[in-house]
Amino acid sequence: CPCPLVMFVHGGGWWNGDKSHTPKSDIDRFLSKGIAYAAINYRNLTEARRDGLFPPLLGPLNDTRRALQFLRLNEKELGLDGGRMAAYGSSAGGFNTLWLGLHPDQADPGSDDPVERMSTRLAAAGAADAQTSIDPAQMRAWVGPGLKYGGHAFGLPESEFDTFLARRK
């Protein structure tokens, strides 16, 4: 090594789930190819609200970002190749992975925190059964006027989708 890395981000609608649900067959497949494997946890929406984050979705997203940055900061000690890091997830974890993979690099070179100075660039990102938008107008256009899902990521009950839509910005 240094070995490439795959980071797994669990699903659970940002309400629940845990890295312990990582499929053992996935771990075995990557390790057998000489690819290091990390499974992460992140704050759920309730914990993010408790911590004062708004929208609460910032908890799971920022924790996913920071996990990658932590792994990159410690790449030498962990025997990892920081230029060959990928991530994948399912459902909410797939969304977090796509957000990270499609977002511009979020490194903050001027931060006092060495973790925050690390790049968030991925060599590859993968997702299964992921929500592909959190924009309520886009979601409704794709799914139809009966859609009432997504407000929970912004601290609203599902019954308040119209409020979610009105607060789109």
Description:
The chain has 169 residues and is an alpha/beta fold. It contains 7 helices and 4 strands, in the order βαβαααβαβαα. The chain has a 4-stranded parallel sheet with strand order 2-1-3-4. β1, α1 and β2 form a beta-alpha-beta unit. α3 (58-73) crosses α5. The longest helix is centred in the middle third of the chain and has 16 residues, at 58-73.
The low-confidence runs, each spanning 5 or more residues with pLDDT under 50, are none
Portion of residues in beta strands equals 15-25%
Cross-sheet strand order for the largest sheet: 2-1-3-4
CA gyration radius, whole angstroms: 17 Å
SSE arrangement:
Layout lengths: L2 E7 L14 H9 L3 E5 L4 H6 L7 H16 L1 H4 L1 E11 L1 H11 L21 E5 L7 H8 L17 H6 L3
What would you say about this model in short?
With 169 residues, this protein is of the alpha/beta class. It has 7 helices and 4 strands; from the N terminus they run βαβαααβαβαα. The longest helix has 16 residues, at 58-73.
Q: What key attributes describe this structure?
A:
7 helices, 36% helix, 169 residues, alpha/beta, four-stranded parallel sheet
